[in-house]
């Protein structure tokens, strides 16, 4: 992955991040396509946009942010790593949230919480009685 145009320290950090996520270069399909939009002749005549697909997960990324193909390769790999991490974290955090919600639902209310709920109910009842129509006989 050398020479992606983002600086050697950033490239090595990205390579370590991808390795930590289990992404191998054999698992990536990389295509270079023509970009559109601003950038002039460089964008219109050269294939500066980068399309990446991670085969095991099926995640696809297309990057045409910069005019340089090398920089777009780096940015596409970084976006792929972000998506993979979000997918991994999302599964873990969703499970943790589900477990925490079940715990909260099963937990007994404290005495103070019960008193608070009862006080709110009494207040609402008082408001409702105050809204009632006056009795014409009285």
Using brief descriptors, characterize the structure shown:
138 residues, alpha+beta, 3 strands
Could you characterize the architecture of this molecule?
This protein has 138 residues and is an alpha+beta fold. It has a domain at 8-99: Double Stranded RNA Binding Domain, CATH 3.30.160.20. The protein has four helices and three strands, in the order αβαββαα. A three-stranded antiparallel beta sheet has the order 1-2-3, with helices on one face. A hairpin with a 4-residue loop joins β2 (49-54) and β3 (59-63). The longest helix is centred in the middle third of the chain and has 38 residues, at 69-106.
Helix tally equals 4
What spatial form do the alpha-carbon principal axes imply?
Answer: elongated
SSE string, helices as H and strands as E: HEHEEHH
Order of strands, main sheet, comes to 1-2-3
What is the share of helical residues?
A: 55-70%
Q: How does the major sheet shape up?
A: 3 strands, antiparallel
**What Rg is obtained from the alpha carbons, in whole angstroms?**
29 Å
Measure the end-to-end span: 90 Å
- Shape-level CATH architecture of the domain at 8-99: 2-Layer Sandwich
Total number of β-strand segments?
A: 3
What is the third-level CATH name, the topology of the domain at 8-99? Answer: Double Stranded RNA Binding Domain
Q: Give the overall average pLDDT.
A: 88
What fraction strand? 5-15%
CATH class of the domain at 8-99 reads Alpha Beta
What would you call the quaternary organization?
single chain
Unreliable sequence segments: none
Structural class: alpha+beta
